[in-house]
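go over my protein:
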Amino acid sequence: MPLARRALALTLAIAIAPAAAPGVLLAQGLPWQRIDRRMPADPHASIRILDLAGSIRVTGWDQDSVSISGTVPRGAGQFYAGGSRTGIKLGIETDSLGAPGVELDVRVPRAATVWIKSSSATVTLGGVEGDVDIATVSGDIRVEGAPRRVSAEAMDGDIELTTRAAVTRAKTAGGTITINGGGGDVTASSVSGAVRYTGAHKLLVGRLESVSGTVTFQGTVIRGGTLAIETHDGPVDVRVPRDQAARFDLTSFGGAVTNALAGGDPVVPKGKPLRFTSGADDAGGATVTVRTFKGNVRLGGS
């Protein structure tokens, strides 16, 4: 076949890819399969996504449909998508954890419930206001916006949540957890990774834990709210507004406790708790508790 005709055939194959059945391009000898699929969906549909490696980007939009685009390299597995308007499953079916990575770009109704599972893919999500549940082994997780509830779990990947959710749950073993915005009910735990909370919104209930990682809190706890921090030997740094109305109870059995807020001792001996009340009006104030075995504790104002 002349070169010009071969080029034309290749161009036509790419042009018709969105309408082609899965695997057509691979069968024609190309090194990848192109995905371009759109499915009707209810505004509150449940969307389940599986992609073991590569990248997954999910964006909420104001359309009653799910749009899927991306590329599947040769050997990565088979793309699938199906279901009904109320529930859709999509992703990559493969028998090999060492398969090439797949890039998926998925748009879902803004109020949808989204469930994502991966092994090493990077997951990025934004604009979704329903419930969000993401689990990965070594991939990083990034979520932005105001989901109603967000749950993010990784073994070694980092988790970054720039959100304002009613309920936030984040868990990792060796990765770092960073929560920006915050507010509501927040639980974050890590084994060796750092846990960082910077809250632009007042926290109602907070539980931050790490075995050996640093735990940092900078924000405001709402009146009547609670903040509890625990580590084994990880240092703890708590910064609250100087007018924060709260009862503080801070203890390190083997580390130092230092305090820069008015109302409490600036330094206490190892193993001795630091307990005091701050704020102009302590009636109904927040409760802040820190427990660590060997880590140093520092309390300051912001």
Notes: The longest strand covers residues 221-231. The two ends are 73 Å apart (CA to CA).
